[in-house]
Amino acid sequence: MKKINFLVLVLPFIVALFFSFNVVFSGSIKGKIIPTEGASQVWAMSTADTLKAAISQGLFEIPNVKAGTYKIFIDATDPYKDVVREGVQVSDGGSVDLGEIQLEK
Description:
Immunoglobulin-like
């Protein structure tokens, strides 16, 4: 009988804890820089988050991106110009491929 009373008291707390956490499914942003040696880092910025990733052999991927709208900043090396892409939408668990990004001199 004491075990049943204990379960009746504890079970609502366990259920409340289970539902109090929000599950966040993170997404990613990826792309390819041309020419491959033209940039070293890429940044994803939103009102709530700033993330960065290195560029390797022209490829980059920013993991663990929360859903939202991002500004992408590609930090180009001389003689190339930096690139900014605004309004990149990431959904929960979604992957955004920016495709090939051609750097200009």
